[in-house]
Every structure is written in structure tokens, then in C-alpha cells.
Write a structure and sequence with these properties.
Elements: E1 2-11, H1 28-38, E2 53-54, E3 63-74, H2 79-83, E4 90-97, E5 108-118, H3 126-136, E6 140-141, E7 153-154, E8 157-163, E9 166-173, H4 180-193, H5 199-205, E10 224-231, E11 239-240, H6 242-275
Parallel strand pairs: 3-10
Antiparallel strand pairs: 1-3, 1-4, 2-3, 4-11, 5-9, 5-10, 6-7, 8-9
Helix pairs in contact: 3-4
Length: about 280
């Protein structure tokens, strides 16, 4: 018998064109639906599961720790069963029984994104960066920081902490306009490096459209992670599937080591190029 269930998903978005389905390109949502078809939870000709919704629409290259989807699912469909048909870079790790009518998008009360910005202290002034984050926090119309033309009023909170050569920026809000988090990062970074004054934040938040040469492009997507989605319903209690969570840990730890090794190789090449003996000029 099917009933509404919610699932937490973690995924590495590097090889996907975002979460939401698009024609002719791989997306996380396509991977989930293909897994459900393989498990015969979703009919081969069905567009999506009954009651289906997702908490966030992450862009191409963006990853997630706590993407949340919900749909009518059979009782036996636990995260470990879903993982058996998902690709390795998409892992379900927790689930919850959801009330009838639950909507993973509309009922989310808080979303949290984390951006890992490479910003050595020698290149970014932390006080200026934090001042920009403070100015961008709170209710504003962010029409200059998103391609969306409607519903651009948001009330994010931006908090930055120093971790070695990185500034870890956490952005929370009830919801986000498209590309908003990555454009917030870009603008705060400009202020932090001194490429822009704090007045640039005021101009970006002003009612007037920014002229083209003052436009704020989005920061790269790969350092961005959807790290949290909260719901106000007290009866929605996620239970971690220990086997599935361990599988997810192993997958992403292996990826971390692989990329660390790749970074070492690139570092050796960069150092070698700089140290190569050059002919006398």
C-alpha cells in the first residue's frame, strides 16, 4: 500500500545539469525517476510519482546534502532500496512518513545553502566581506541579483566564517530566487577584495536596474551545497537509514580522496612550470 513518504538525498552535482528534469541532458531528478521505474514504483510511461515534489531546484553543478523529495511510495521503499538503483553519486540516506497533502516544496519553512569560497586572507578582507553579508541580510528586493522577473523579494541571512584559505558562507531563507545565492557570493567577494565599495550593495538593492557594466554574475556553482531543509510539521520525523548513510559516506569520502589526489597532481604541475629553468634572456 502506498502512502506519502519523504526522502533526504545527498548528491554530487558535478556531472548533472541541475536537479530538475531537462530534455536530453542528465539531471538528478531523471536519475531518481529512472531508479523508481527500475524498482517498479513508477510506471514506465508515467511522468512522475503521485504527490511528487522536491524542496529545491539546484542549478547545474550544485550539490546537496539534504535535498528533500516526497511522493506516494510503498511501505517497503527504504533509502537503501532506492540506493540499489540510483547511481553512486546520488544517495538517499533518511526517510519519514509524511501526512496526506504534504508538499516538499511549499511546506518547507527554511532552506540552507553553504558556499565554500576560496578567499585567502591576503586577497580578501574578512571585515569588508562580513559587512557586505550583513548589508545583504534581511528583507530586500533582489531583482538585480536574479534572472527571475517576479517574486524577487526575499529575506536571507548571510553568515561567514574563516576556515584557512576559505570563507564558508551560509545563507538561509524560506526560499530563494534563481541564482540568488551565487550572486550574493559574487557581490560580497567584490566588496571583500576591494573591487567594489560597500555602496555597491546599496546600488544592487536599489529599485533601479543595474546597468550592464555593473551587473553581478553568479559565482561558480561547484562550491555550493544545499545543506539543510526544515519543515514546521512536528509529525515529520526523519529516520536515518544507517546502512544507506554509511554507503553515502563511503561514496563521498572516496570522491574527496580522488579530488584531493587530483589537486596534488595539479599542484605539482603548477609548481614545476614555475620552477623550470628558463634560457637567459
Amino acid at each position: 500500500m502506498a502512502s506519502m513518504r519523504a526522502f533526504r538525498l545527498a548528491y554530487d552535482g558535478t556531472d548533472y545539469y541541475g536537479f530538475q528534469r531537462q530534455p536530453d541532458v542528465p539531471t538528478v531528478e531523471d536519475a531518481v525517476f529512472d531508479a523508481l521505474r527500475s524498482l517498479e514504483v513508477l510506471d514506465q510511461d508515467a511522468d512522475k510519482p503521485d504527490g511528487y515534489a522536491a524542496a529545491g531546484r539546484t542549478d547545474r553543478g550544485v550539490s546537496a546534502l539534504a535535498q528533500t523529495i516526497a511522493f506516494e511510495a510503498p511501505d517497503w521503499l527504504e533509502p537503501r532500496a532506492l540506493n540499489a538503483e540510483l547511481p553512486a553519486d546520488v544517495r538517499a540516506w533518511a526517510s519519514a512518513d509524511a501526512p496526506d497533502g504534504f508538499h516538499a516544496t511549499h511546506h518547507a519553512s527554511r532552506r540552507e545553502y553553504t558556499y565554500h569560497l576560496h578567499a585567502p586572507p591576503s586577497s580578501v578582507d574578512d571585515e569588508r566581506f562580513v559587512a557586505a553579508c550583513d548589508a545583504l541580510s534581511g528583507p530586500h528586493d533582489f531583482h538585480n541579483l536574479t534572472p527571475d522577473e517576479h517574486n524577487t523579494e526575499r529575506a536571507p541571512t548571510l553568515e561567514a566564517t574563516r576556515d584557512g584559505d576559505y570563507l564558508v558562507l551560509t545563507v538561509t531563507a524560506g526560499g530563494f530566487a534563481r541564482e540568488l545565492v551565487r550572486r550574493l557570493v559574487s557581490l560580497a567577494r567584490r566588496v571583500g577584495t576591494g573591487d567594489a565599495s560597500l555602496e555597491a550593495v546599496d546600488r544592487a538593492l536599489a529599485p533601479e536596474p543595474l546597468p550592464g557594466h555593473e551587473g553581478i554574475p553568479p559565482a561558480p556553482p561547484e562550491p555550493l551545497v544545499l545543506t539543510g531543509v526544515d519543515y514546521s510539521d512536528p509529525d515529520l520525523e526523519f529516520e536515518i537509514d544507517e546502512q544507506a548513510a554509511e554507503s553515502a559516506h563511503d561514496v563521498f569520502e572516496t570522491r574527496r580522496i580522488d579530488r584531493q589526489t587530483t589537486a596534488r597532481v595539479a599542484g605539482d604541475i603548477a609548481a614545476g612550470v614555475r620552477s623550470v629553468d628558463r634560457p637567459d634572456e
